[in-house]
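Good day; I would like, with your permission, to put a structural problem before you. A protein sequence and the structure tokens that stand for its backbone fold form the material at issue. The record follows directly beneath this note:
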Amino acid sequence: MDRAKEAVRSYYDDKGDEGFQKQLLLWQVIDERWNNTLHRPIHAAGIFLNPGFAYSCSFQFDAEVMDGFFTCVQKMVPSPSERADISKEMEVYRMAGGTLSFDMAIQDRTTKMPDAWWRSYGGRLPKLQKIAIRILSQTCSSSGCERNWSVFEKIHTKRRNR
């Protein structure tokens, strides 16, 4: 979403006050779509639990991602003792300890589907493995994307882009 907003800003940057007003209007549409459709705790949890992202050198988990993950854990795991176990297992996951540090596990971080990676290498972290597989095995829906494209089609008409 940041890239979309940056593209809008650069397009309207030299268009004066009228361009600035249009930019703000488009940003409002983008923010509304992001907040109402695409910005959910389960998406943040999926990013955190995806080893391809989690162990990427350039990816840092901010408070927003961690808040989303903790929100999912709180909703999906009713037992405080199980949540405490997940918290302990999280540290092993973050530090890539145990079987997560094997060469095969490291190599498969980006080549295997995330849920399959957890099935293969997450056995020593059973509580975190269970929630990771549940979250990462969710089917994706294109309805949110379809709604976005519908809005963007209204913004980017042939007449406007001439």
Remarks:
- The two ends are 25 Å apart (CA to CA).
- The chain is about 70% helix and 0% strand.
- The mean pLDDT is 86.
